[in-house]
Design goal:
- This protein has 12 helices and 17 strands.
- It has 2 domains: about 160 residues, Rossmann fold; about 180 residues, NAD(P)-binding Rossmann-like Domain (Rossmann fold), CATH 3.40.50.
- Strand 1, helix 1 and strand 2 form a beta-alpha-beta unit.
- It is an alpha/beta fold.
- Helix content is about 30%, strand content about 20%.
- An 8-stranded mixed beta sheet has the order 3-2-1-4-5-6-16-17, with helices on both faces.
- Bound molecules: nicotinamide-adenine-dinucleotide.
- Nicotinamide-adenine-dinucleotide (NAD) binds next to helix 5 and helix 6.
- The transhydrogenation between NADH and NADP is coupled to respiration and ATP hydrolysis and functions as a proton pump across the membrane.
- Pfam families: AlaDh_PNT_C, AlaDh_PNT_N.
Amino acid sequence: MRIAVPAETDKSEFRVAATPETVKKFIGLGADIAVQAGAGAASGFSDADYAAAGAKIGASAQETLTAADIVLRVRRPAASEVDGARPGAAVVAMLDPFGHERELAELAGAGVTAFAMELMPRISRAQSMDVLSSQANIAGYRAVIDAAAEYGRALPMMMTPAGAVPAAKVFIMGVGVAGLQAIATAKRLGAIVTATDVRPATKEQVESLGAKFVAVENEEFKQAETTGGYAKEMSAEYRAAQAELISAHIAKQDIVITTALIPGRPAPRLISAAQLRSLRQGSVIVDLAAERGGNCELTRPGETVVVDGVKIVGALNLAGRLPATASSLYARNLLAFVETLVSKESGGLSINWDDELAKATCLTRDGAVVDPRFQPKA
Ligand code: NAD
């Protein structure tokens, strides 16, 4: 079995889909693995590191992909970027399928069997394959580090001979995996942390991290979690009550980190332009939902803008900005999933189509897009 790790082609992607550690493990499974020259450079892994782990170094994407049974990527490859892989080869990546039906159809046309890691069921058995969690953890941490760097003041309270400095007030909106890590990081830096979410289960999680929970806790809030553990889209009435509560709270904050997402929907708007203007000069908002339109009305995805003295950081791919750590965890997520696609007896690619993990993540197979949600509209 041959595994290929081509270099990422998006210039803003610094992660890599395999590390020397996972290369060794793949070889232990009986695979040959080719890593394109330079693929790990931005994550701090040199070609020599991969070669020492047992990988062959491919001089080009073409050479790396030749006769591959499995292609590992961070981002969805274009159809032309799987050229050379075997027909039916498994492509394992974050396929970012929502809104990209055309690209998926092209990938299907290239004859590969493509698996979207972000659609992995969030069940105990698949925890080690959960790329949303591994990357969100890093993004939540990085958001606080970015906010601290942009904020012109200290986060912890300081008692100095020149006088006391108050602790910064940090407010986390959306307490999923990224939000919980952001709370923990801001607490470690000495900030006074509050947090909000629409899912009742988060209240206890927030409090267990030593932060204060702020939310409209009405009947709708008690029902706001889907059976899958995600947030529902809230009613106009709830959003109005939430906005009123948040308006009063947000005006007193120094740093706001927003992480709220609803699967397959645009990010909910949580901070209006008027609320933003109530923050004092020098405050910072880091909008982790920038990629999905932003939780803040004035976020510009990919940019940092200053509005009335408030900085709004709309950074994209925050996890990718901690590339060595993000790649290490992502690569382990891929290894754990690929192990389920390989036969223990023959060591070859052998996909069990009765397995709920393969079924939930497979988007293209036998030349077609197989998940009806992403099939091209007639
Ligand atoms: P996410 O990225 O989908 O959303 C981030 C947070 O935003 C969520 O907590 C959500 O409730 C919140 N949110 C949505 N709309 C909001 C609004 N209008 N106002 C305030 N907050 C809002 O979330 P996630 O990090 O992917 O986590 C989703 C769920 O999955 C959680 O219950 C988490 O515990 C669970 N999870 C399970 C596993 C597992 O079992 N393997 C692993 C990771 C996460």
